[in-house]
Specification:
By secondary structure, the protein is α+β, with helices and mostly antiparallel strands. The chain has one domain: Peptide Deformylase. Helix content is 28%, strand content 29%. The protein contains 4 helices and 7 strands. The strands form 2 sheets. It has a 5-stranded antiparallel beta sheet, with helices on both faces. Strands 4-5 form a two-stranded antiparallel ribbon. A hairpin with a 2-residue loop joins strand 4 and strand 5. The two termini are 30 Å apart. The protein binds zinc ion (ZN). The site of zinc ion has 5 residues, from helix 2.
Length: 187
C-alpha cells in the first residue's frame, strides 16, 4: 500500500493537461496508489494529476464517506483515458470540495447526465451513462486530467465556503437539493 502526497492548489503540476495512457498494463501500480491514496484521504475520487503523474487515469469510489455523507454510493471505478459527453442540456448546481483545495467548497454547475467512455483497470472498454449527483463526481475527476480545478468553474464567488461554514450555513439547503436529485436519478 502506497499513500502518495496529494498536491495542493498552486502546484503547477495540477494545471497540466494529462497525456493519454498508451498501454493500460503500464499503469497498474499507479492505479493501486490512486486507490490507496483516495481511501486514506476519504476522497470520493482522485486523479493521477493530483499525485503529480500526468497520465489520464482517475479513480472514483463512494461508500460511507464522512466528507460527503449525502453522496449515493459509487462502486470502485477506474477510468483510463476517460471521455465525457453530456447527455442533456440540463445542469445542476453542485457544492464541491477537493482534496487538492483544502478547506474550501464552492458551487459549480455540472451536467445532470454524462456518457462515460474509457478503459477500465484491465484495459476493457467502458461505455456507460452516469446521472445525478454521481455525474458531478465523474465530471470533477475528469476535469483534473485537463488541468482544471472546481474553483475555475465557480460562477458566483460568494458561494465559496470553508467546510465549517458550509456545515453551518449551506449544508441543509444543498443536501435537500442533492437528495431530490438522488431520488430522481437513483444516483
Ligand atoms: Zn478534486
Amino acid at each position: 500500500m502506497t499513500v502518495r502526497p496529494i498536491l495542493q492548489i498552486g502546484d503547477p503540476a495540477l494545471r497540466r493537461v494529462a497525456r493519454p495512457v498508451p498501454d493500460p498494463r503500464d499503469v497498474r501500480d499507479l492505479i493501486a496508489d490512486l486507490i490507496d491514496t483516495m481511501r486514506d484521504a476519504n476522497g470520493a475520487g482522485l486523479a493521477a494529476t493530483q499525485i503529480g503523474v500526468d497520465l489520464r487515469v482517475c479513480v472514483i469510489e463512494v461508500g460511507d464517506n464522512p466528507r460527503y455523507p449525502y453522496k449515493p454510493p459509487i462502486p470502485l471505478t477506474v477510468l483510463i483515458n476517460p471521455e465525457l459527453q453530456p447527455l442533456t442540456a440540463e445542469t445542476f448546481e453542485n457544492y464541491e470540495g477537493c482534496l487538492s483545495v483544502p478547506n474550501l467548497r464552492g458551487m459549480v454547475r455540472r451536467w445532470v447526465g454524462v456518457r462515460v467512455r474509457a478503459l477500465d483497470a484491465e484495459g476493457a472498454p467502458v461505455d456507460r451513462e452516469v446521472w445525478g449527483l454521481s455525474a458531478g463526481t465523474f465530471q470533477h475527476e475528469v476535469d483534473h486530467l485537463d488541468g482544471k480545478l472546481f474553483v475555475d468553474r465557480v460562477e458566483d464567488p460568494t458561494t465559496f465556503s470553508s467546510w465549517a461554514s458550509f456545515d453551518t450555513f449551506h449544508r441543509a439547503a444543498f443536501v435537500a437539493r442533492a437528495q431530490a436529485l438522488v431520488r430522481r436519478f437513483g444516483s
